[in-house]
Specification:
Length: about 475
Amino acid sequence: MFKNYIAGEWIDGVAANCNVNPSDTNDIVGEYARADARQTTMAVDAAFEAQWVWRKLTAEDRADAMDRIGSELLVRREELGRLLSREEGKTLAEGIGEVVRAGRVFKFFAGEALRLGGEKLPGIRQGVEVDVVREPEGVVGIITPWNFPIAIPAWKIAPALAYGNAVVFKPADLVPGSAWALSEIIARAGNLPAGVFNLVMGPGSQVGDTIVKSPKVRAVSFTGSTGTGRRIGIECMTRGAKVQLEMGGKNPLVILDDADIDVAVSVALSGSFFSSGQRCTASSRLIVQAGIHDDFVAAMIERLSRLKVGNALHSDTEMGPVASRDQLDQDIAYIESARADGCVLAFGGEVLQRETPGYYLSPALFTETRNHMKINREEVFGPVATVIKVGDYEQALATANDTEFGLSSGICTTSLKYASDFRRSSSAGMVMVNLPTAGVDYHAPFGGRKGSSYGAREQGAYAREFYTSVKTSYTLA
Ligand code: NAP
């Protein structure tokens, strides 16, 4: 049994959670402890006490700890990548890539710990000096989804610790394995004072809810669905806690007549279907200009027919299963609703059998869709993409922006004029030109607009906005 980590001790839960491999449901990845509200409160109390010890250590102490954690993640990339792919279902290459990203994130924030500068302003009163500094928030609650089980925890935990906060971390119940392995590295290689970092696995309705409602938790960073995020946001605002929400997407990829078709197909394929489409930044709406539409659809179908869907751990697999039975059912329900709305299923959308029992679904491509249809309004979170045919660039832009979400958007074009205008006019927080909507750098700000995100940006130096609080002091020398 893999235990929770509370106040510097590995502690049994009140129940056990069975982690199942979605590529082979006969394969049990491990049994993981589930905490309850009482144990979660113990973790919050431990973090509350430990924050004072941690913030008094030097920035170099914190930088060294982040560096050690990052180094171990990078050295163990193969082993941890395999664990990630086994429990979540993304391909081995994607799993290893995600672990590398997590390692790089810790390395980046090792440096950032030393770069947390302040400001000195000229006073407007004679002899008065004005200093602006950033201090840790205190105890930060971190709640993460199942689709990036090591990278998302890393890009929240690393800045939280680097900037001097204590952490209570609740990973997604569906995939606790990578989160547990990361926590074990933080606990051992990080060598942090007891209570600075706590892992509490268990259901969101108990563990997550207790974190969100705890008065000792000053800030909550959440990534997950829009519904849960909004509820957490209301709770935090009601009690005056800082909150950062990264939620769903319905990301458009515009393909103009002048696009290089090979680039467009490869960008759409990767953006829509890699990681089984289970990315908040996935290109789920392909907005295609009429002149290239038929060639693009034909080229996509040809490429999709060669896409190898199979066991995530097999080296030739290009797309693994979806993560769970619930996710598979949700994907199928959306596929059925799109068909009922009159969309044409041009490819895929079928449950597949492989040599091991798993949640395999062939990548689904719909044509003849309209932007107002349910399939184009709601996040599916699976290997399902739609094609929306448009007449010109202006219609493409208006369609791309006509969504309640605003995480990522993309355009495939060889026109500098349209590329530049799209970068300016897109209502998303991240814009890609001739690149997939999914796939971002760890040193650059990450986040969206409208219904996709709320609060400060994540990642890069921008992360300091959420994990620190500004203090202004005046001194009469
Ligand atoms: P979810 O169901 O909202 O769960 C996210 C996390 O919140 C899980 O750890 C969950 O616990 C927890 N939770 C559930 N109810 C809670 C409550 N009442 N109080 C506190 N915590 C609670 O989302 P998901 O299905 O795991 O992830 C998929 C979603 O994440 C998609 O919508 C996707 O777009 C979004 N996402 C967004 C980004 C981004 O950066 N914008 C990145 C990745 C994913 P359990 O363990 O019980 O599930």
